[in-house]
Amino acid sequence: MSSFVWMKVLESTPERYDRGIAMLSGGRIAQVYGRIAAIAAAPGRRVLDIGCGTGAVSFACAERGALVTGIDINAEMLEVARAKPVPEGGTIAFLQLAAAEIEDRFEKTSLDAVVSCLAFSEMSEEEQDYALEIARRRLVPGGVIVIADEAAPATPLGRLLHRLRRLPVVLATYLLTQTSTRPVTGLAGRMRAAGFVDVSQERMLSDAFVIVRGTRP
Predict the structure, then answer these.
(1) Fold of 7-215
(2) Given the DSSP bridges, would you call strands 209-215 and 197-204 parallel, antiparallel or unpaired?
């Protein structure tokens, strides 16, 4: 796997999205979904999945008994998500909603966990800050946030190789969709600035993916 920017192409054909992301990750993206769910989900926990797409993280959380609400602005992706069977023990509701609308739809301290995968890389830094702030207010004290996304490798050599591998994919994606994504940077610091504590991060998938977590005090 060289990059997840092809997700922009796959979003234009939602029925192929899950298969495409699995191929791009060498079949390892399910490890990320499972890790997010292991941190955030438990029986009866109220989980919000921001940018849920076709629902992979939402379903991983529901399999652990969580009560999940998945939001996304792409109606076709949500259609694919709604067509999937809901795991026993959990519930899922899918809403066509942007991250900026969370404030209007969810009450303060109404969630136990907020998760997001491959969505923050599509946001500007200002949008990321806003989403983190709104998420913190919607979480109960002790609630957790878990953000997973593409990230540049930690070492200089790794970053150089990553850019070289990524460049043709970025160019091709832009030519096809006129959009692109970028690796997230400084997300742990943004979480702390938004008021989260116990912030930590872990690398996955050959150091090209990061999972950042924090807790509302």
Answers:
(1) Rossmann fold (3.40.50)
(2) antiparallel
